[in-house]
Amino acid sequence: MRYTTFGRSGLRVSEAFLGTMSFGEDWGWGSSSEECRKMLTAYAEAGGNVIDTANKYTEGSSERIIGELLGADRDRFVLTTKYTVSMDGDDPNASGNHRKNLKHSVEQSLQRLNTDYIDVLWVHIWDRDTPIEETMRALDDMVRAGKVLYIGISDAPAWVVSRANTLAELRGWTSFIGLQLSYSLMQRDIERELLPMADALDLSVAAWAPLARGVLAGRFTRTDATTGSRINRADVSERGLDIARQVDAVADDLGVTSSQVALAWIRAHHSWVHPIIGARTLDQLTDNLASLELELPEEAVRRLDEASRIDLGFPQDFIEKSRDFVYGSALTRFDRRRR
Question: Which residues form the NADP-dependent oxidoreductase domain (predicted)?
């Protein structure tokens, strides 16, 4: 596995991150501690160094299992977790991105993870009822206290992230260095605003659900088995199934699995987009890790791009269609400078 720096930081991270939402059996479809140990070992042996979890995953069991498994090797890994989501539904202050929930959540995560610092703390989801100024200042305090090294944000509009980092830069606070977003051949919405913003602001992206909860692994196109599935066939659109069939066809042509094709597509366009590989078994993880050895032919990438293409919508589509009108014939003699 190869490495690159994360966002504008000097933090070295592996190509793929290990997702641990399945670590623990509290939600009825996860993995035992022993299976988690096998998966963590396989990921580390492949060269992976980023473990992604959250305080809410399997009601805290994911963090506890990770803390137990890492032990003395903790410093060799980039350990990331999240806060925002409630661990006590009866307490109105046990959720959200305000200072009180941040402090409590971080302290609890540190205990469960058996560590005294978190490498990357993600804001789990945008909280419209907490001023972004409060969140950014509170996160900066955590960094200055040494409990958190870097910060990122998940599941938020582009304008929120842009405003947050602008405020942080203006006031000398810690800025976000990464985004965690849903991205796959079936979910390309972030190409409208979030990916261009990430490119412009030098933010890395961690892509969750890169296999669309198994749909792009052939869950409904190669088999009807739904054991342990978190998604029903009725919830998948015909367009989604058509995209999955195209993935299957490319996989068959290349002699690889559908999962490997879908994950390789994530990496085909941007080296700074890191798929979060989540699995419930060692066999699933091993298959997914093999995608890192797969480089899709250009024709295959174009085929998948076309099958899953989305309309960018206004203003992107309008701007693109207006290029000749705006810039005139000189446009044909203009070469855009690349960074």
Answer: 18-308
Whether 57 is a known active-site residue: answer: yes
| Active-site choice (57, 83, 150, 183) | 57
Give tens-digit pLDDT for 83-102. Answer: 999 999 999 999 999 999 99
Question: In this structure, is residue 306 part of a structural domain?
Answer: yes
In a domain, 338, yes or no: no
Question: Could you give the number of structural domains in the chain?
Answer: 1
Which residue in 20, 22, 24, 18 sits closest to 45, CA to CA?
Answer: 18
Amino acid at 153: I
Tokens of residue 149, six digits: 């090294």
pTM of this prediction?
0.94
Extract the tokens encoding 114: 């058996």
Six-digit token string for 252? 């068959």
Instruction: Give the tokens for residue 188.
Output: 């390309």
- 3-state SS assignment for residue 104: helix
- CATH for 306: 3.20.20.100
